[in-house]
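Our preliminary data section would be incomplete without showing what the modeling component actually yields. Below, a chain of 399 amino acids is followed by its predicted structure, encoded as tokens that our downstream tools consume directly.
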Amino acid sequence: MQYFEQKRRWKYLLLITAAMIGLMSLYYTNYLVEQISESERKGAELWAKSQLELAETEDEEFIDFLLFVVKEGTNVPVIVVNEEGVIQAVKDLDSTRTFKETEAAQSSQTDKPVKYDPAYFRQQLEYMREQHEPIVWETAQGVRQYAYYKDSWLLTQMRYFPYIQLSIITVFLIVAYLAFSNSRRSEQNKVWVGMSKETAHQLGTPISSMMAWMELLKDKYKTEGDPIFEEMENDVHRLQIIADRFSKIGSTPVLRRHNILEEIERCVGYLRKRTSKKITFEISGEPAEGLISSLLFEWVIENLCRNAANAIGGNEGKIIIRVSQNKNHVVVDVKDTGVGIPRSKHEAVFQPGYTTRKRGWGLGLSLTRRIVENYHKGQVFVKESEIGKGTTFRIVLNK
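Predicted structure:
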């Protein structure tokens, strides 16, 4: 259990670190955007005022300087209007259009005709009004002018670049994580299958020998009808079933229609005699047929019942199993009156190695989910749980 807590802490730590890096990147980019935005506003203001100086000065050298400022000083699109909202000048907009009808008529006689398109400039002006507050100044004659501008293409890119960058990085990390998880899961499956088959192989020889010895004892000591000897035979037979179960891990099981209620009653019949007398089993429901591998399904019920018995511990309690069905599925609920499971651990209990017992391996519920979901294409999950009152596991099988 401590391993999973540490693993979760590391995940949270990495997630917080990634979020901090992302936020720092956004903060720094926004800082740069603000600096560039301020610079562009000053450039637009410089251009607008240069237009005013060009109209009022007669100094040729100063005019040349102002023309240089107008041309090279900034690449921010600007529109200057008077108090009545009439466009006086424009900069860095579509050069194939003009807001002056006379210029359009004159340019139509040249090689590069310019279209008179006042609607285009009105549209750009509205967009600029929404984006920034205007730059306001007065001419020497006391006429107020308004310069509207919009972000340059560079600034627009800067605004959206970090979000695009973070999105691409996030997608890449998600794909890499999924690929790594699938690869790791595939390796775990290979190890799991290899260990299972090797376990079945190692158990096969001594189990066969035990079965032979049981037959010899039966003939020598005439043990027919002896309840102790019969239970010994049942346990040896159970070992054979366990070995068969392990041998089927990794292979595609043959699913056949079985009466789910009868399969559960047979499995519980064996467990009753090997579980604390303080624990009682209750089985209810209607006969329902589902597609299962009988050998593997018994393993599922056995794991859930043993898990329930461990949750009850040395106290008195009940394990209640109920079978129901609908049009397409058979539903099996296994309920106990044990200690319960915190909501935060409802998924963790199915992870390999998760256990609250000092000597537990934490493989029972992991194996249960593998059998139900991978081999039977069903579902198994914690339906409900309350601390101190018990837990209900639900299995959903295809009919």
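The first helix runs from residue 2 to 56. The CA atoms of residues 80 and 86 lie 8 Å apart. Preliminary results of this kind motivate Aim 1 of the renewal.
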